[in-house]
């Protein structure tokens, strides 16, 4: 089987220091969708807090087309439900989801 | 698939009911790609059968054991929350199986979400169907449905109530939308009245739904049972069959 991809476990990591640390406030960018994205529309333009720094991997936009792009740092971001959905009834509830570096900007 | 056949003597023709009522475009695509791959020798039909059987044989048992062990062993609990993939090895679960770097969609990033009396987690994948398969097996059908996916992120309390889980307003609900390369599982709070239970007894009440976060473990609840109501107007009713039955 011809496999152009490196096994995930063996991937080299990028040495660029991570831009954000746990607790930092970030906003999800609202970039145009080119063919493929995993950045959900409901999170676009919404601010949240970095909950975890996870791993480095290809961005979905490259990987979907089997392109070996640059590895990027991924983060789990925590949002208040109230910030995502204006009519949300509880102040307390939260939602977390994950983004690669390029989709986030500091607030 | 639908071959008409005649019963000797009963005097009517009818079509044999197909075993699968509907096939989606994606299933047709999968079959086409799979047949092409076999034709081109990328893998054999036997490889495909073996892999499918392996994937389908994985159930939620490993997840239940992880939770029971975390409830009884504080050291293991800490290790599980620190590094899920590594802690899984202690109970014989290797996320790298079967290729050495996992399956094409079970990435080696596993995070366990710890519930407290004030915080309840529930997982979903709004993108499609991300699920911690090495520890929970194949996801239930409803987990992959667009109904669950689009509504859980927006109305989590209402959706949980439909599962029979009504949480008081002082409990924070945290939805984990798992749609990149991390896989998640919920570590529920150990129910009271289980103090002297063995790991095995505890594992029996940690069902799949408890680890997705749509149910809470409790004494005597050892299976995920959802009420099944018969459809009043099933889509595939056939007037011909209705008549024959009368």
Describe it:
By secondary structure, chain A is mainly β. Chain A has a domain at 19-88: Roll (SH3 type barrels), CATH 2.30.30. Chain A has helices at 60-63, 81-84, and strands at residues 25-28, 47-57, 72-80, 94-100, 104-106. The longest helix of chain A is centred in the middle third of the chain and has 4 residues, at 60-63. The radius of gyration of chain A is 15 Å and the shape is globular. Chain B has 2 domains: 24-57, no CATH class; 59-212, Nitrile Hydratase, Chain A. In chain B, helix 3 crosses helix 4 and helix 8 (146-154) crosses helix 9. The longest helix of chain B is centred in the N-terminal third of the chain and has 15 residues, at 25-39. Chain B is globular. Mean pLDDT of chain B is 88; it is low at 1-7 and 242-246. Classes of the chains: A mainly beta (107), B alpha/beta (246). Chains A and B meet through strand 2, strand 3 and strand 4 of A and strand 5 of B. Strand 4 of chain A pairs parallel with strand 5 (172-177) of chain B.
């Amino acid at each position: 089987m011809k496999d152009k991809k490196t096994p995930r476990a063996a991937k080299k990591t990028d040495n660029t220091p991570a831009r954000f640390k746990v607790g930092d406030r970030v906003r999800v960018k609202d970039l145009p969708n080119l063919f493929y994205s995993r950045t959900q529309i409901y999170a676009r333009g919404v601010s949240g807090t970095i909950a975890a720094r996870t791993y480095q991997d290809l961005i979905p936009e490259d990987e979907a087309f089997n392109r070996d792009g640059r590895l990027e740092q991924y983060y789990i971001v925590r949002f208040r439900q109230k910030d995502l959905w204006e009519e949300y009834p509880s102040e307390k509830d939260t939602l977390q989801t994950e983004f690669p570096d390029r989709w986030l900007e500091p607030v | 698939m639908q071959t008409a056949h005649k019963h000797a003597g009963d005097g009517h023709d009818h079509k044999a009911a197909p075993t699968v009522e509907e096939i989606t475009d994606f299933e047709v695509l999968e079959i086409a790609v799979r047949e092409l791959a076999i034709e081109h020798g990328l893998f054999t039909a036997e490889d495909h059968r073996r892999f499918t059987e392996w994937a389908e044989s994985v159930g939620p048992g490993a997840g239940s054991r992880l939770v029971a062990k975390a409830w009884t062993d504080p050291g293991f609990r800490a290790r599980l929350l620190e590094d899920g993939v590594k802690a899984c090895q202690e109970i014989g679960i290797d996320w790298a199986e079967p290729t050495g770097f996992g399956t094409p969609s079970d990435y080696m990033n596993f995070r366990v979400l710890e519930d407290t009396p004030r915080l309840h987690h529930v997982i979903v994948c709004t993108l499609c169907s991300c699920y911690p398969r090495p520890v929970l097996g194949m996801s239930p059908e409803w987990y992959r449905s667009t109904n669950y996916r689009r509504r859980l992120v927006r109305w989590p309390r209402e959706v949980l109530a439909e599962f029979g889980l009504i949480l008081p307003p002082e409990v924070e609900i945290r939805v984990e939308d798992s749609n990149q390369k991390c896989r998640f599982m919920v570590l529920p709070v150990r129910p009271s009245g289980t103090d002297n239970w063995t790991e095995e007894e505890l594992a029996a009440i940690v069902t799949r739904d408890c680890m997705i976060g749509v149910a809470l473990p409790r004494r005597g609840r050892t299976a995920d049972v959802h009420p099944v109501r018969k459809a009043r107007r099933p889509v595939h009713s056939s007037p011909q069959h209705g008549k024959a039955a009368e």
